[in-house]
Amino acid sequence: MSTTTPAATASTTPPSTDPAPPSRRRALLRRLFAGEGFVALLIVVYVIALSPFAQGMLSERNLLNVLSNFWPLAIIVIGQTFVLVLAGIDLAQTAIINLTNTVGALLVARMLEPTLFQGSVLWNSVIGPEGGPLGGGWPGIVLAVLIVVAIGALLGSLNGLAIARLKMPPFMVTLGTMLLFSAVAVWLTRSENVTGLPEEYIAIGQAQVWGALTVPAIIAVVLGLAAHYILSRTPFGGWLYAAGTSRQAAIISGVPYKRVVVTAYALSGVFATVGGLLYSARLEAGRPTLADDLLLDVIGAAVIGGVSLFGGKGSVVGAALGALFFVVLSNSLNLLNLPFTLVFIVKGLVIVAAALLDVVRTRILGATR
Amino acid sequence: MTRFRALTAGAAALAVLTALTACGTTGGTGGSTAAADQDISVDVSTDLSGKRICFGFSGSETEFWAAGIKSISDSLSAANATVIEHNSNEDPNRQLEQVRDCITQGVDGIIVIPEDGSSANTIIKEANDADIPIGIFNRPPATEDGAAIISVADNRDVAAQTVQYLADEATKLGRPVQPLIMVGNLSDQNAVERRNGFYEIVDANPDLFLTPIEVQTNWDAATGQANLQAAMQANPNVDVLFTSSDFLFPQIQAVLEPLGKWKAVGEEGHVIMGGLDGDNRACGLIETGYVDATGVQDLFSEASALLDALGTAIQDGDSKPDQTIVDPGFALTAANFGDRSEDMWGCVITPPAS
C-alpha cells in the first residue's frame, strides 16, 4: 500500500484547516462499518476484553457450548435476513417454530399420555396412546421433517401472500399470525410438552460426528451456503435487494415483486422450522411455547450482523456473525454470573445499540449492500 | 456533523453496555426478588467452604417459589458456599444453556428448579455427563432416567388429604355437590399428582360428588382467571372448589365476588374451598374463614433435605447421587388451624416479593 497518499501529505498540516476529503473519510467509515468485518472485529474485541473476567470462556467445553447454541439461532437469523433485505420483517418466525416443532414431535412421539393429549383434536386420528404415526425409524423421521418443513414454508407463504397480494404491512401481518400460529400450537397440544421422542429424532439436534462437527453444524452450514448462494448468485437474490432498496423502481424494472415477497417469507418459514427442530431435538421435547422469548435475539442478531431494518442491505455471513455475537454475549453474561435483571438490561442495550448502528450505517452507506 | 453525533451516540451506548457488563462481575447475587430482611435459611449439615454451587431456577412468580429460592440461596451462603444464581425466566432452552455455562465454570454441585419434568431430565443428563452432582427441588423429572437427588412433596397424598376435608365439609350439606378443580400445567408432574389426589377422593365418594368441572390454568394467573370465569358462567352451581396452587386465590376471589359467592364459612352461598402449597395468602384466608383447607408442602424440610444430601455427595466425591426425598406434607384446615398453623411456612414467614 502506498504511503504517499493525499491523507499522509495532509497530515503535516493542522486537521482543522485541512480535513481529509469527504470521499476519503467516507471510504474509511465505509470500510469500518460496512459488512461483516465490523461484526467480526466486534466479536474478537469483546471476547478478548471479557475473557479475563468470564471464567472458562475460552475453554474447549465452552467453545462447544457456544457452537451448540449458535447453529439453531444462526439458521433462524439467516431466514429472517431474506425478509429484512426485502424491507419486511417476520415476527411470526417464533410462532412458526412453536407450531412446527410441536407438530414434528407429535408425529414422531413413541407414546402419548392420554390424560394429557386425549383432549387434542388430533387424538385418535393422527395421534394416540402409542404416539404419532412416524416414530418407527429413519424413514418416518425423514418424512416427519419434510412434512414440518413444508408446513413452515406454507405458513411463511401465507404471510407473504397477505403482504404481497393484499398489500398489508408486514409488521401487522406477522404480528397477527404470530398470535394465530402460537395459539394453534397450544390448541393442538392443550399447552402440553410432547416428550417420548425417538433417538433418531433427538440425534438431529445432538449427534456428534467428529469433535465439534455435529449434525446441527452440518445442517446450519449447508443451509447457510445455500442461502448465501441464493442471495448473492441468483437473480432471485438480486430481485430481493432491488425490491428492498426501492419497491417501485424494482417493479418498473421487471422484478416479479409479489413472487419475490412470497418466496422470501416462505424461506423465512423454512429456516425458522429447521432452527426450531434443532432446539426441540436438543431439549428432547416438542414445546408449543419453545420460541416465545426468541424474537428479540433474532432481530437483534440480524441487525448487528449488518442486515438493515430499512431493507436492501445484508448478507448471510453478516447474519451468521450477528447470531454468533448474540450467542457469545449471552454466554459471557452467564459466565460473569450476572443477575438476571442486568442480563436483560445489557441485552436490551445491545439491541438498541444495534438499531442505532443500523441508522448510522444507512446514513453513511446509503443503499450499498 | 449529524453523522458524527450519531456515531458518538452509538459509541456511548456500547460504552455503557461494556461498563455495565464489567460492573456486574461480582457474581452470585441477585436473581431472586425475595425479601432481603428475613433470614429463611435452613441448616446444612456440611460445610461448603470453597465450594461453588450453581443454582438455576425458572422464575419466582409465586410465594412458594420465591420463598424456596430465597431459602436455598440463604442456606447455601450460610454454609459458606459461593452461589451462582441463574434465572431462566421460564425458558427451558435458556435454563439448559445456563446450566451448561455453570458446568464450564467447573462448579462443585448444581441445584435446579426445572421449568418442567422433561427439561429436568435433559439437565440431569448434562450434569451426569460432566460428573457433577445435581439436586432437583420440588419439581420432579418426567422419567427416572439419570441420577439426581430429588426433593419433592407427596403431591397426590397432600391433595387427597385436603380434598378429603372438603368432602367432609360437603357431606354436611346433605346433598350431592358440584366440584371444580383448577388444574396446573400437566407437563409438570406436581400438577398431575395433585389432580390425581383430587380424583382419588372424588371417585371414592360417587354419591357425594357430581362430575367435576376442570379448569385449565397452566400455572398462569391470567389464564386461570379467564377460564374460571367462563366455567362459572356455564356452571354457577359450583359448591366445592379445589385449586392446585394457592397463588390463584386472588383470581378466584375476583371471579366469585361479583357472583356473590365469595363468602366465609357459615354464610349463605359459601363455596367450600381448598388449595395446595401453604402460602401466606392461604393462611390468611383460612384464618378469616374464606378458605377451608390447604395442602402444605414443607418448604424448609424439602430444602434442608436436598442441601444435606447434595453437601454430603460433594464431600464424599459422589458425582452421581441418586436419591428421592419425599416430603409427606399435611393438610392445614379450619379445624386444625389453631394447632398446626405454625407448621405451615406461609403462616410464619413474611412473604418474599414474588
UniProtKB/TrEMBL annotation, chain A:
Residue ranges of the TM segments: 32-50, 70-89, 96-117, 137-158, 170-189, 209-231, 260-282, 294-311, 342-360
Record's compositionally biased regions (Low complexity): 1-15
Annotated membrane topology: Multi-pass membrane protein
GO MF annotation list: transmembrane transporter activity
Keywords: Cell membrane, Membrane, Transmembrane, Transmembrane helix
Region (Disordered): 1-23
Stored Pfam families: BPD_transp_2
Subcellular location, record wording: Cell membrane
Main location: membrane
PANTHER family: ABC TRANSPORTER PERMEASE PROTEIN YPHD-RELATED-RELATED (PTHR32196)
Protein known as: Uncharacterized protein
Organism: Cnuibacter physcomitrellae
